[in-house]
Every structure is written in C-alpha cells, then in structure tokens.
Amino acid sequence: MAVTKERKAELMAQYGKAEGDSGSAEVQVALLTERIRGLTEHMKSHPKDFHTRRGLLMLVGKRRRLLSYIKRNDIEAYRALIKSLGIRDNIQ
Q: GO MF annotations for this entry (predicted)?
C-alpha cells in the first residue's frame, strides 16, 4: 500500500528538476498519484473502510490543488505531467 523507498527514488529521478528533488510540485503529484492508486486498489477489496476512504479523498484534494498550481504557472508542464501519469484533465 505504501510507496517503497526504491519506487519513491524512481519517481523523484523521473519528475524532479534536480537530483534529490523531492519538494517540487511535479514530484509531489507523482508521489500522491502512486499513493492514490494503492489506496484505490485497497478500497476495491474493502468497500466499507471509511477511514481509508477519508484519507484517499484528502490525498485526491491535495493532488488537485497541486495540479491547479502547476496549471496556473506552466501549462505545458501540466499537460506533460498528466499525460505521463495517465490522469484526466479536470482542473478548472
């Protein structure tokens, strides 16, 4: 369910602007997307786990805010990011 250390390093290398970059919005969106996918799989087999559902909705909200920030500042980077992560464009 949690993102492993190796997977986190892969995502930071792929989406980071420099080596060891873990704070940029792109890296944060990639890490949140990975966590959201894990929790979504958990929710498929445990539909009544409302504590996890709340946490999942909070992560989705945080990712949405970060994506709107990226879209506001650099639309081309936003388009490339959502395409590479495979998420839909529904940020106004």
A: rRNA binding; structural constituent of ribosome
Residue 70 belongs to domain spanning = 5-85
Question: Is residue 80 in a domain?
Answer: yes
Mean pLDDT value across residues 36-45: 96
Residue type, position 66, single letter:
L
| CATH code at position 19 | 1.10.287.10
Q: What is the pLDDT of residue 81?
A: 95
Tokens linked to 21: 């970059």
Contact 70, 29 (CB under 8 A): yes
Taking the model in full, what pTM does it have? 0.93
pLDDT score, position 1: 63
In the three-class reduction of DSSP (H, G, I as helix; E, B as strand; rest coil), residue 86 is classed as coil
